[in-house]
Amino acid sequence: MINHNQQQRASARKKTTKSLSVIAKHPTLSVVFILSIFASIYWGMIASDRYVSVAHVVIQSTMDTSNTQTAMDLGSLLNGGAAGNIIDQMLLRDRLLSADMLEILDAKLDLRSHYSDKNRDVISRMWSKDVPQEWFYKYYLSRVSIEFDLYSGVLIIQAQAFDAKTAHAIVDLMIEEGGRAMNEMAHDLAREQVSSMEKQVTQVAQKFQQARMAVIAYENKQGFVSPQDTATSFSKTIDQLNSQRASLQAQRNVSLGYLSPHAPGIVEIDLQLAAIQDQIKKEGARLTAPKGGHTLNSVVEEFERLELAAGFAQDIYKTALVALEKSRIEATRTIKKVSVLQSPTVPQYPLEPRRIYNITVFILMTLLVAGIIHLLAAIIRDHKD
User: Fold this and answer.
1) What is the DSSP code (8-state) at residue 241?
2) Partner of 126 for a Cys bridge, out of 116, 204, 269, 371, CB 3.0 to 4.6 A?
3) So what's the architecture of 197-333 in CATH?
4) Where, residue-wise, is CATH 1.10.287 in the chain?
5) Helices (H) and strands (E) in the chain, counts
6) pLDDT in tens, 44-61
């Protein structure tokens, strides 16, 4: 029995010696072996646990979209007809990954102290709390990820921290600050639109006032409250006189059937006709005679042009007022809410680092690199020979 055990030990020593000799003959395998051992020790025992909190959010707007027509274009087919707020989602993603967001998170959660905790391994943590902002920002991007699901239109927010409470707090604060930033952006845009519309309304009101003052000044200059009404009154008077003249002419023709032209009744009618004809000439002269260098007809034409310009300015003013009021209403209703589909999770198990996965991938990649190096070395030796 003792001899058998001694034989087994000797066989094991021989195999170990043989393996070591093989490794010694191939330095590349020695490096791979050593690196694999260090990687296994680090990922298996040294690497600090990192907890991952996850949330799903989507942006919803209270703006009236009843008049918005959805086009069946390639984009709508690709995203499955999801909400057409992809731009808002991308803006929110950019905001959450910005350096400004990092400053807010650091001010409220003291991320510098958390990520540079000396109790964590030196590879996982930041080397120092006082690292430059650029390095801190790069580290932040390595611990936060935001993915956009094009089909459902949902943002998936993930944050890693060395404890579950901090990971949850990071995601929760990101959602809160992201919603506030989106609302501020929408309100600023609405305020700019209302301010611009108010300026346009002020300019239109001034033009309308100038047009009305031009009408009043022209009326005062010509001495008519309404030249058009005055011309209409003259025309009506002339029409009435022509009607009377026609009636008297008919009466005269009837009287000549039984009276002589010199009869008193005919003479009286002739006098009336002469008076009416003279009045018609006077009224016509008043209508067409120059007044202030212009005939009444030209005065009416100029007055109508001014009235038309004033009416057009008034219509534009009314339209501008309606547009301004509509902009104010829309500004009060422009609210973009970050709706939470899945609240930030409170992790109970550290999902990072993925120890077995990382060890396996590291060993495979190291073997692949070693194989390439060994192949290149063999090719070089063949060429030398």
Assistant:
1) H
2) 116
3) Orthogonal Bundle (1.10)
4) 197-333
5) 12, 6
6) 888 888 999 999 998 876
